[in-house]
Amino acid sequence: MKVSGKIIQYNSKEFKAIFERLFPSMCILASNILKSDGKGKDIAQEAFVKLWEKDKEDFTDENSLKAYLYVLVRNACISQLRKEKKLSRTTLDEAYILVEKEFLNEVLREETYNLLHEAIKELSPQSQQVVNLTLKGYRNQDIAEELNISINTVKTVKKRAYKLLREKLGNQFVSALFASFFHFF
């Protein structure tokens, strides 16, 4: 396969790096659509096997490769749901619209989450820890105890980190992220 004009062999470091970057997103997407982590992981693995079988594919960049994998995962999820007869109660068109809507929501959520994590990686190590613990639902007091710092330090670090994230990602974008992903206590 080619990505950005570069030939990628399937047993190469480059392919392994692509797999490690994209496989978690494909797993999350499939797991959320199918409501099963095990089935989601299987679907994601199948998508990479299909990619491996199509060694003549030429992707303009990694985003087009990711889009291709998203479509493979979506189609495999639809097939899995059909196989399990979960789509038999509605017409195929209605079922397709439902899966497509859920698929697009999951892709948007996953891409948003990836953008957030890339921005978090650019923060100081302490800010990264505080934001990641907040993302996991920790309260300020819990973060202070976990990191062995004062609660005021947690509040200050959090405030500075959010300011930097707003500058990096945009004010409205970060507000939407906070509403969707962060637990405030």
Keywords summarizing the entry:
185 residues; mainly alpha; Arc Repressor Mutant, subunit A; three-stranded mixed beta sheet
Structural class: mainly alpha
How many domains in all?
2
H-E order: EEHHEHHHHHH
Q: Helical content, roughly?
A: over 70%
> Major sheet: size, sense and barrel closure?
3 strands, mixed
Shape: globular
According to DSSP, the number of beta strands is 3
Spans of at least 5 consecutive residues whose pLDDT stays below 50 are none
Mean pLDDT level: 80
Separation of termini? 48 Å
Strand percentage, roughly? under 5%
Concise account of the structure shown:
Helices cover 76% and strands 3% of the residues. By secondary structure, it is mainly α.
What does this structure look like?
The chain is mostly helical. The chain has two domains: 1-118; 122-185, Arc Repressor Mutant, subunit A (Orthogonal Bundle), CATH 1.10.10.10. It contains eight helices and three strands. The protein has helices spanning 13-34, 37-53, 62-83, 92-121, 125-135, 140-147, 151-169, 171-181; strands spanning 2-3, 6-7, 58-59. It has a three-stranded mixed β-sheet with strand order 2-1-3. A hairpin with a 2-residue loop joins strand 1 (2-3) and strand 2 (6-7). Helix 1 (13-34) runs parallel beside helix 3, helix 1 (13-34) crosses helix 4 and helix 4 packs across helix 7. The longest helix is centred in the middle third of the chain and has 30 residues, at 92-121. It is globular. The model has no long low-confidence stretch (mean pLDDT 80).
